[in-house]
Write a structure and sequence with these properties.
Layout (H helix, E strand, L loop, with lengths): L2 H31 L2 H11 E7 L2 E4 L2 H13 L4 E3 L10 E4 L4 E4 L2 E9 L3 H5 L1
Antiparallel strand pairs: 1-2, 1-6, 3-4, 4-5, 5-6
Helix pairs in contact: 2-3
Length: 123
Amino acid sequence: MDSHQYQQHYYHSCQQQPQQQQQRQQLQRTQMTGDYHQYQRQSAYNYTWLVFKNEQWQPFDRDNQMKLEANIACGGTFVDICDSLFPGVKRVRVFPRNNYLSYLGVKYRLSRVLQPDAWGCLA
């Protein structure tokens, strides 16, 4: 490769880099903003939120699984839910980042469990 060909190659590669960088940034923005509902469906299937109540781990209702995942994704502090595990109560305040919920002044431990079928998605 002579110097003229090298200069042309260098010039074209420099022009392509900003275009490729713009494409990568656009792809990242699309992935970050993505379809919110798709994220909810995907995350609800990959993880299960459990609460330790009556000396056993019990799962939250399906809709609340999605709310907890959305709260984690948005960086929220807490979310108020109505769940069949706590009948007769208008709402329970859940703190997913701190792994506990507050019910009638008592703190219950939470756990976020990765489901085995999620491993197939990662391969």
